[in-house]
Predict the 3D structure of the following.
Amino acid sequence: MTVRNLNLVESLYADLRRRLQLSEIGPDDRLVDTDIAEAYGTSRMPAREALLRLVAEGYLVGSTRGFVLPILSPDDIAGLFELRRQLEPRAAGAAARDLTADAARQLAEAMDVIREAHAAGDIRRLVEANIDFRNAWISCVRNPHMAATISRFMDYFQAIRLDTFSDQVTRRIYVEALGALFSALDARDSLAAQDRMTAFLFAAESAYLAAHQRQAERDASVKPTRRRQQKNNHKT
């Protein structure tokens, strides 16, 4: 593969991953290499390489036609959060200790937007600011392997992120826990940052499990309707 194609793959990968982070690609969407190539004005091979890289990192899975978001079970969610609780409290403590002035400013700006978006019910803006908040504190984690691993685990939840924030009570609990974490980071208090990250992760896990349950209930209510429609079509 030429240098130009390698750069193109990297560009496609970065853009697709950003779209996944923002939940612009949903559970019902299907990513096909030819469609991606056409949308980005490139050939099929770089598009396919970018998609396969997302598959290798766990963000997508193959299907009969193209690639889709992986479906997380409650056990998957619990297992991933167990791993996150092994990594993120320690990382948050390190980030609080090494927080730069620029990162502190970015955290404050992101937290302001998160609170405003929560009050306004602007879910899309909240998701964007949530990513900015995450990127700001992770930028202060000196261990690049830990930072990359944490980012990857966070991004596994994009399929249900919008639904997580759609419930006002769940969203309020999530934002309050994030605000407590922000206060500890802003104070450069490593021990408090560790404790509050742990509390935040428990709140986040509850939010994602609740969103998963709502999604499962919606899917269960849709299936009988589809069966009735198919039955009626056969009769006619």
